[in-house]
Every structure is written in C-alpha cells, then in structure tokens.
C-alpha cells in the first residue's frame, strides 16, 4: 500500500532504529534506575518482575521488529541470507518473549498475585500464541521443508498480513502492560505527574511511533521501482 | 495490500457489522446493568463517567468505522453520495467522541480525580487531535473547496494511510481505557475473575477483532477485478 505513496523504506528504517534505541534505553532506565534492577532470583520479587518489560520490549518487540524490517534494511543482500536472519531474529525474539512471560508468572506466583485476569495478560498470551503459529507456518512453508513455489507465492501476502496483525497486537499488549504496571504503582502512592510516570508514558508513545515506522517499512518497497512492498524478491 | 490476497471486502463488512453489534451490546450491558446506568447530571458521579465508554465505543469508534467502510458497504452507490455519508459519519463520530471525552473530564472534576496523567488519556487526546486534523485536511482537499484532481489523486493514499494509523490508535486507546477502568475497579474490590471482569475483557477482544475486520475492509477491493483497494473510484 505504501508503494502507492511513492515512499521508500530506507529512511523509515533509520527512524525505526533511532526509536528502538530510545525505547530500549527508556525501559532500562525505568527498570534499573527507578525500579531497582533486574534479577532472575532475588528476595525482592520486584526485581524478577522487572525482567518482564525489559525482555518483552527489547527481546520480543525490538528484535521481532528488526526481523520484520531485515529485507528492507539489507535490500541488496543475498535473499537466502536475509531470510535466515529473519528466521533467527524471530526465533530469538520468541524465546526471549517466552522467558519474559515466565518472569511475570514467577513474580505473581512468588508474591501471591493472581494470574491471567487482565486484558494485558489475555491479549499477551493470545498474541505470543499467534506469533508461534505464524513462526511454525513460516518455517514449514518458506524454510524447511518449504512449499512448492506457487504455494509460497500465494502464501507470502498472508504471511505478511497475518504477521503485521500479530505485530500490531504485540504493540497494543505492550501499551496495556505499561499502563497496567504504572496504574498499580500509582494506586499505591506513586506520583501521577512525577518523573517515573512521565518516563513510562513517553516510553508508550515512543513504542507507538516505533511500531508505525516498522509497519511503513514492512509495506514500503525497498526500491522506488518496485510495484509492491511486501514481495521485493522472488519467493522460491 | 489485501488486493494482493485476492480477498474481497464484502464478507468482511458483514463480519465487522456483527462484531460492531456485539461490542455495542457489551458496552451497554456493562455500563447500564453492571455500572448503574448513564446520566449527564447525577448525584452518583459514576453515571456521568459511564457515558464515556458508551460514546467512545458506539459514537466514536463504531460510527467512525462505518465511515471508513462506507465505500465498500455500498460499492455501487453514487460516489458523491458515499463521500457525503463518509463525511457526515466521521463528523458525528468526532462530535460524540468530544462529548464522551467531556464526560470523562466532568467525572474527574466533580469527583476530585486528577486529569491527563495516564497513557490512556495521553494517547486519547493525541488521537482525537490527529482525527480532527485528518477531518480538516479531508474536508478541504476532497469536499470544500476541494483540491485540483491531480492533488487529490496524490493525497488520497496518504488520507487512507494516515486515517488507518489514527484508527488503529483509537482502538489501542479503547483497549487502554477498558483495562484502566477495570484495574481501578479491581483495586477497590471487584472480583478479578467475575462476570464483569470477563465481560470487559471480552469486549476488548471483540474490539480488536472488529478493528482488524475494518482494516481489511479498508484495504481490500470492493470488486475482485480492482487492482488496489484504497482507490476504488476516481477521486475527482
């Protein structure tokens, strides 16, 4: 669709990378400087929770975003190489995402907090399940054993469309998570207009802008002459 | 982009309408049966708040969604007529959205609750501001006085892309609002796994599926033979 706008992907990849760095720094400052740091085992259970936003944002969303953008970041690289990087980045993202979700459950269980009652948790579990389904279909159809060329060609736009749907859901889930955690903190006394509240809210805004840039990169062509952005290179 | 998938808009308009009815019923049941009803003036300030989710979901999001889909709902109608319905529906949506936001502020102010500190409020204010900018540009470029035909043709894909960006932001804001209100209620004793919690969370899921259907309708062609979904009819 962005092909019809006459914009190329390259400048948006730079914007996306800058916003990714900003979001990564912001979530680290939040969880380390404001929330006390990160730990997989600690007497202070909050440190276990802190791993959750860091892994979900940097591991799951940012690495997943780089995987999405990889064909437009390196448009001249050998297609098999970019496809392999796409697969590896998504694999690391989903593993780090699973560890991040584990940390949230561990924090809940160790602290006597209920699991899976909030819209954040529902959308989050649904989203990583869809992400996993997308990974499996993508692996089987495009990597090993790989479908017949005409099947791949028909499946690719669905892979892109469903992938972007799952991607937007991950962004929405991240926004819900930031709001939910901050609401808990504010209900137990955190200043509603303090530095930490503003840091978390601005992290939410940066994630929205980052996600928008990534979606534009995904649908925009790598080169101006291409008619459609989502299939820059033959599928076989 | 969905044009490349070979799907037509029509079946997705039916899905969207069914989900819109479901979401509307769910938010009304929540605000009337569970939360005590709706009022612009009342001793029970909660009734004033209840107008907010009802107007934002039914007035702002559902009417705005119908406006987005109108070209695909009535593909054979005269283009000037559908364009006028598109404009009128978006105008009603933005007015009802503004009234809905007013009710949230009125509830806060009458109850001594702080304004504009949450990510929901930040994204919400930002989104309706962008919606207003989109309305003004659309009115001037496509309705009155109207830009030159070649300018319209160049502006239309941007109108669609920016419109869909704003639309996805309204959906994200709705999800944040549902989670925020439910979190407040649960922090003051509402059952985390009770009927009301499930109703609100499922409303959030229905809104996500509804929004996905609307976006597919917007990018899919009305007829299979059209090459691109976002410009089914000449712009002039």
Word description of this protein:
- Chains A, B: Its main location: membrane.
- Chains A, B: It is a multi-pass membrane protein.
- Chains A, B: It comes from Oryza meyeriana var. granulata.
- Chains A, B: Two-heme-containing cytochrome. Catalyzes ascorbate-dependent trans-membrane electron transfer by utilizing a concerted H(+)/e(-) transfer mechanism.
- Chains A, B: Residues 15-219 form the Cytochrome b561 domain.
- Two copies of one chain form a homodimer.
- Chain A is mainly alpha-helical and 236 residues long.
- Chain A has one domain (2-219): Up-down Bundle (Four Helix Bundle (Hemerythrin (Met), subunit A)).
- Helix content of chain A is 75%, strand content 0%.
- Chain A is built from six helices and no strands.
- The first copy, chain A, has helices at residues 9-34, 45-73, 79-111, 119-143, 149-187, 195-219.
- Chain A is globular, with a radius of gyration of 19 Å.
- Chain A binds chain B through residues 1-2, 4-5, 114, 117-120, 122-123, 126, 157-158, 160-161, 165, 168-169, 171-172, 175-176, 178-180, 182-184, 186-187, 192-193, 197, 200-201, 204-205, 208, 212, 219, 228, 230-231, and chain B through 1-2, 4-5, 114, 117-120, 122-123, 126, 157-158, 160-161, 165, 168-169, 171-172, 175-176, 178-180, 182-184, 186-187, 192-193, 197, 200-201, 204-205, 208, 212, 219, 228, 230-231.
